[in-house]
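Notes from the 1:1 (GR / supervisor)

We went over the backlog. Supervisor wanted to see one worked example end to end before approving the batch request, so GR pasted a single chain during the call. The sequence is below; no edits were made to it. Supervisor asked that the structure be written out right there so they could see what the output format looks like.
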Amino acid sequence: MASGSVAECLQQETTCPVCLQYFAEPMMLDCGHNICCACLTRCWGAAETNVSCPQCRETFPQRHMRPNRHLANVTQLVKQLRTERPSGPGGEMGVCEKHREPLKLYCEEDQMPICVVCDRSREHRGHSVLPLEEAVEGFKEQIQNQLDHLKRVKDLKKRRRAQGEQARAELLEHEYRLLARLEELDLAIYNSINGAITQFSCNISHLSSLIAQLEEKQQQPTRELVVWERILGSYLPDDCPPPTDPSSTGGDFLGL
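Structure output shown during the call:
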């Protein structure tokens, strides 16, 4: 990848989409985007509910954000690398303002580029010094590691969000199945109750017929009444079986 493309990528990753400056206290939202804390405060004001991401406009039911320390570290490294990068014309090394020598070294203790004369001075004597190109490559490696970590965190958040949506869909489907089962049970109980009412009506009809016959036979001689008493003692309608208990239908339906 060309150095210009790398610089542009780093610039985009460490720039707030609201103020278009380097991130200052970057905060990560539930949608995965990062915004400066001060920018979020200005955008949301005093609102605590139904707030939205300034970048993608996704709405959140509650105000929730958390510090993105990894992105803050990356931003700090990019700012430091940009400040300490040699800026001579034509891509040449920068020049030490004090000794007018090329800045070819990097002091790790003072975290600044120095020249060979600075390296021998009392100010940097005994300090750990690296070639400037090696220090720059180290900064790039640190930045890349931080960016890779941020991408992994973002991907993990997306996967968890997808899993949550899938679990929600499964719960809704289970709820629909239960509601359908309850409707079937309600219909079965309704039919059972109607059947019981029909059986009771049949028995009542037979009893009414018997009562009418008894009232008619009551007017007959005593001898015939004795015969009818024996008949009634052994009488049981064959075409109207005893009614079933409607409450047992629900248990049979559910397999209880």
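Supervisor's comment: DSSP finds seven helices and eight strands in the chain.
Batch request approved.
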